Each structure stands twice: as C-alpha cells, then as structure tokens.
Automatic annotation (TrEMBL):
Protein name per UniProt: ABC transporter ATP-binding protein
PANTHER family: HEMIN IMPORT ATP-BINDING PROTEIN HMUV
SMART domains, per the entry: AAA
Keywords of the record: ATP-binding, Nucleotide-binding, Translocase, Transport
Species of provenance: Nocardioides yefusunii
Signal peptide from the UniProt entry: none
Pfam family of the protein (one): ABC_tran
PROSITE patterns: ABC_TRANSPORTER_1, ABC_TRANSPORTER_2
Every ABC transporter domain range: 10-249
Cited InterPro entries: AAA+_ATPase, ABC_transporter-like_ATP-bd, ABC_transporter-like_CS, P-loop_NTPase
GO MF terms held by the record: ATP binding
Length: 265
C-alpha cells in the first residue's frame, strides 16, 4: 500500500496556442505545462510577449488551445466542463477592462454571481456574498458609482471584487498590480495570500519579480511560449535565471527582513 499522501494539485499540460492567418500561423504557446499545489499562490513571470496572457486565457478556457490541452484541479478536468460549470470554479481577471463602464460598481460585482444563479429562478444576487467581496477588495465606498468614473487602480479593485464574488476554486489574474500604487500593490498581493489560505489556488501574471518573490509560493517562468522553470520562488528566482530570461544582470540576495529572495538590478 502506498504511504504517499495525496497532495491536491493544479496540473496543466499540453497547453498550446496558435495565432495568425492561414499562411502565417505561429505558436505563441507551445506545450506549456506546470504543476502546483492547490491553495498556493503562483507567480507567472516572463518577458513581454512571452505568452503569459495567452497561458492565462488557455487555463481559463476562454480561448481555444491545442488538442492535448489539459487543466486539472484536484482531479477535476476544468477544460472538459461546460462553460457555466467552469465559470463556477474558475475566475479570470484580465488586464483590459471590459465595456462595463455604464454599470455601477455593485452591478459589476454582482455579475460575479451569474454562474451560480439557477437558470430557472430569477433571484437577486446573494447580497451577503457581494457585500463581503466589495468589502474585502476595498470598494464598498464607491459601490454606487459608475465603473467608468473610477480611477484605473479603483477599477482594478472592482474587477478583483467581482472575481471574489464568483467564489472560484482557481483564481487567475493577468497583471493585477498594473495600475496600483505601492501600498495598493502590497494590499492586492496580501489579499491573494488571504484568498489562497482559504483554499483557492491563485495564479497571477506579474512583471515585478520582487512582488513575486515577496508574496508567492511558486513561480512559473515563461519565455518564447515555453515554460522554462517552475518551482518554489527561492529555488527558481536566481540571478542566472533572471539573466537568461530577461537578458539583464541582477543579484539575488536574501531579503534582510523576510529571508525571501530579493532581486537587485
Ligand atoms: N490574437 C493574436 N493575434 C496575433 N498575435 C497574438 C495574439 N494574441 C497574442 N499574440 C502574440 O502572442 C505573443 C504572446 O502574447 P501574450 O499577450 O500572451 O504575451 P505576454 O507575456 O502576456 O506579454 P506582455 O507581458 O507584454 O503582456 C505576442 O507576441 C503577441 O503579439
């Protein structure tokens, strides 16, 4: 009998994506794969154009991938689920905001509940869950304002609130710190840690290697559409990896306060 403990895992394999016309098709993602524990926070890093957004969308099942694509969360085949069933389990916070500028913040956050609503019953979105998601993401103060009237950073937090209202098992975020000031960046990453502590698996595409090093458990390094490295941040984020992946010189030392890796350029 095996004594090995079952470790719930997010496993992705065979993820590919081609773009371009019939005569100019090219792979922007090639057979990408990685495996990380459920309930962890993983940073997806890599240079501009590496394929991070493509990988996020393939993981979320919002774009077509290769026939071999497989994404499994604790044994559940996510890409094999019907769209609505997948939307109950997977939330994707994308870089670009969708055209929801004429809705109020509360209405946008309520949209996170749509996958959970019964198609036969016209029910008001669960108020408690929506209010809690808004409070957690720090957007309650502007709940009745139109999304379009908010700053970029405030809008970003609203997208986060909507994703939280969705109560996903897998939360995917494409550059969630893009519009945020230093404190808001730290708050956002702290919030992701909190969400993961409650069992949600979090994968966030990040450009700031020190946010990845400071807040994430694992890192997936993507370059030219391929996964170059994956593992715990302290093992993967080395000076050599930074040089080879980004072509810049860096030192990686232990952070004097936290002991986590600190990348100095
Ligand atoms: N629909 C598309 N048509 C053509 N090319 C595309 C399309 N989507 C993505 N690409 C190309 O695929 C490559 C990967 O893009 P992707 O947005 O996934 O990279 P990224 O790592 O997220 O980049 P960034 O850090 O700049 O946001 C890029 O070269 C991009 O130009």
């Amino acid at each position: 009998m095996s004594t090995r403990e079952h470790v719930p895992t997010l496993k992705a394999s065979g993820l590919g994506r081609q773009v371009g016309g019939r005569n100019a098709r090219r792979d922007v993602l090639c057979d990408a794969g990685f495996s990380v524990p459920v309930g962890s926070v993983t940073a997806l890093v890599g240079p501009n154009g590496a394929g991070k957004s493509s990988l996020m969308r393939v993981l979320a099942g919002t774009v077509d991938s290769s026939h071999q694509a497989h994404v499994e969360l604790d044994g559940i085949d996510l890409l094999g689920l019907k769209r609505r069933d997948r939307a109950r389990r997977v939330a994707l916070v994308e870089q670009e905001l969708r055209a929801e500028f004429s809705l109020t913040v509360r209405q946008v956050v309520e949209m996170g509940r749509i996958p959970h609503e019964s198609p036969w019953a016209v029910a008001a979105p669960e108020v408690g869950i929506v209010e809690e998601a808004m409070a957690t993401a720090g957007v309650t103060a502007f709940a009745d304002r139109l999304l379009g009237s908010l700053s970029g950073g405030e809008q970003q937090r609203v997208q986060m609130a909507r994703a939280l209202a969705q109560e996903p098992d897998l939360l995917l975020l494409d550059e969630p710190t893009n519009h945020l000031d230093v404190k808001a960046q730290q708050d956002a990453l702290g919030l992701l840690r909190q969400v993961a502590a409650q069992g949600t698996t979090v994968v966030a595409a990040l450009h700031d290697l020190n946010l990845a090093a400071g807040y994430c458990d694992h890192v997936v390094v993507l370059a030219d559409g391929r996964v170059r490295a994956v593992g715990p941040v302290a093992e993967v984020l080395t000076a050599e990896l930074v040089r080879e992946t980004y072509g810049v010189a860096a030192d990686v030392i232990a952070h004097p306060r936290t002991g986590r890796p600190l990348v100095i350029f």
